[in-house]
Amino acid sequence: MSFETLGLAPALLRALAEQGYTDPTPIQAAAIPAALEGHDLLAGAQTGTGKTAAFALPLLHRLYVTQRTPSKPKTPRALVLTPTRELAAQVHESVRAYGKHLGVRATTIFGGVGMQPQVEALRRGVDVLIATPGRLIDHIQQRSVNLSHIEVLILDEADRMLDMGFLPSIRRILGHLPRQNRTTWLFSATFAPEIKALAGDFMREPVEIQVAKPNSIAATVTHRVHPVDADKKRDLLLHLLQNDARQTLVFGRTKHGADKLAKILEKAGLRAAAIHGNKSQNQRTRALADFKSGKVSVLVATDIAARGLDIDQLPMVINHDLPMVAEDYVHRIGRTGRAGAEGLAISLVSHEEEGLLRDIRRLLKQEIEIAPIAGFEPSRPLRADGTARPTQKPSGARPQRHARRPHASAGTEANPEARKKPRRRGGRGRQKTRPA
């Protein structure tokens, strides 16, 4: 199958050819025909499989072949909701690239930057509006946006938006959209019961598409664990990066820790930058651009970067800290091994993280190689199954209990616009955070 067989407008095929795309990915091959037929979609696929093009191409085709309402020449015709600023910016970039020969106008609104340029862009007129829920609510309150003529609503990374506490905002936004003559496409990595319930509330007999098992990872990714004592993690990370010059995305658990790691790596002579929720939008955009261009070889990130980062041929991801929720491992590792390319996922695991590693192995349903590094062997080795070797306890000692894991919605770092402060359930806090 090729894009030419899907029924897309010639101007879209021209733009795809200019970018070297000829054959659709499975999610694109399944979703585009259904979308062009006018169905509501409930579509799922693992990260890095081309979900953005799966909705952007049929959206642009529809806007191109149908006429705008003459009485409303400037109001948005399509709304794309995304959970993070970075994902919104990348969707915008894709829409512009695919629609370069169509004359379709698109703009992005998200927090962290001033509202006035966004207000002016909306006044000039826009066909496709890409937005994060919090900032869109701000514009609705100021009456600077009119959503009454939306023809297509797209929820991208719907599971992440629910994770980040955006459900009330989404329902509020839905109240400002037309109920009739609106098509809705929901894209999600997983179909949790909450996703199905949300879809049942505002979608009309959606076609359900699932091209990969939930929480699956590309088969081209090699997983490896280096056991190490917690206080030697930074030294081991530096050792690995100094002996491997490949472009690397490093995940830490906290914003302060990410900044500290980046400074340590820079001091050691590596070109490093940090990206997290305390950075301004300009800082985050610049750091990501420098990483993509190769000016920066190591990008240290919190889970804000786990979703939506589109980095071609990223060869390696390193977890300096394991995520507090196993599903976030999937989103982190989804940055590598994309579009059939090989990738390497390395995790530095201390004995305090044994429970987290077990959760990850259980989720993946596969073995992960345990490979100690000479000179960094931990004082408490891990077994091949990821559990710690038993150690003799003092007589009368009470067994220690693992700290309770925080709820999946415990982090809001990827959602600086969130109105509701999530509940924390103990343990250390966690930060939440197109086609190939």
Give a description of the structure.
The chain is 33% helix and 14% strand. It has helices spanning 10-18, 26-36, 51-65, 85-98, 116-124, 133-141, 158-163, 167-174, 193-202, 233-242, 255-267, 281-293, 326-333, 354-364; strands at 41-44, 78-81, 106-109, 128-131, 152-155, 183-188, 207-210, 221-227, 248-251, 272-275, 298-301, 316-319, 343-349, 369-370. It has a seven-stranded parallel sheet, sandwiched between helices. Strands 10-11-9-12-13-8-14 form a seven-stranded parallel sheet, sandwiched between helices. The protein starts with 9 loop residues before the first helix and ends in a 66-residue tail after the last strand. Mean pLDDT is 82; it is low at 388-436.
What keywords describe this structure?
436 residues; disordered C terminus; 14% strand; Rossmann fold; globular; 7-stranded parallel β-sheet; single chain; alpha/beta
In the CATH hierarchy, what is the superfamily of the largest domain?
P-loop containing nucleotide triphosphate hydrolases
Beta-strand residue percentage: 5-15%
CATH class of the largest domain: Alpha Beta
CATH architecture type of the largest domain? 3-Layer(aba) Sandwich
SSE string, helix = H, strand = E? HHEHEHEHEHEHHEHEEHEHEHEEHEHE
**CATH fold call of the largest domain:** Rossmann fold
The tally of structural domains comes to: 2
Radius of gyration: 22 Å
Mean of residue pLDDT values: 82
**How would you write the strand order of the largest sheet?**
3-4-2-5-6-1-7
Ends apart, CA distance between termini? 16 Å
Give me the secondary-structure category: alpha/beta
User: Helix segment count?
Assistant: 14
Tell me, briefly, the overall form: globular
